[in-house]
Amino acid sequence: MPRDLPSLRIVLKDRCRFCSEPLHGQGHVDHLTPVARGGTHKASNLTLCCEPCNLAKTSKTRDEFLEWRAERGLFNRRVDISGERPDPVLRGALRERYI
């Protein structure tokens, strides 16, 4: 797992983790499991994404967001990041299905 954001940017080829849009050296740092749902700031729980994906993801987990995108017919980037391990969701912090 990349230990810092510049290394993660290289692994992601400076593209959004979710939709593959170019980040052009910018983008948002995103928690794969949101802090509001028990996520931490550990490197294994962080990724880089474009602003539209980060704003759409809100407090969804990585897997919930990928499912949400698929349900809407949106492209999901397939990327294997060694060491990417979203934190577990805290009990009682589960969300209802997304509309």
By secondary-structure content and strand pairing, the structural class works out as: alpha+beta
Computed CA radius of gyration, to the nearest angstrom:
13 Å
The helix-strand sequence is: HEEHH
Give the averaged pLDDT, no decimals: 91
Strand proportion: 5-15%
Main-sheet strand order equals 1-2
Helix content: 10-25%
| Count of separate DSSP helical elements | 3
Instruction: Count all strands and give the number.
Output: 2
Largest sheet composition: 2 strands, antiparallel
- Report the principal-axis shape: globular
What is the terminal separation in angstroms?
33 Å
State the low-pLDDT regions, or none: none
Overall description:
With 99 residues, the chain is α+β, with helices and mostly antiparallel strands. It is 24% helix and 8% strand. It is built from three helices and two strands. The chain has helices at 5-11, 51-57, 62-71, and strands at 28-31, 46-49. It has a two-stranded antiparallel sheet. The longest helix has 10 residues, at 62-71. It is globular. It starts with a helix and ends in a 28-residue tail after the last helix. The model has no long low-confidence stretch (mean pLDDT 91).
Question: What's the SSE blueprint?
Answer:
Elements: H1 5-11, E1 28-31, E2 46-49, H2 51-57, H3 62-71
Antiparallel strand pairs: 1-2
Task: Name the features.
99 residues, alpha+beta, two-stranded antiparallel ribbon, 3 helices, 2 strands, 24% helix, globular
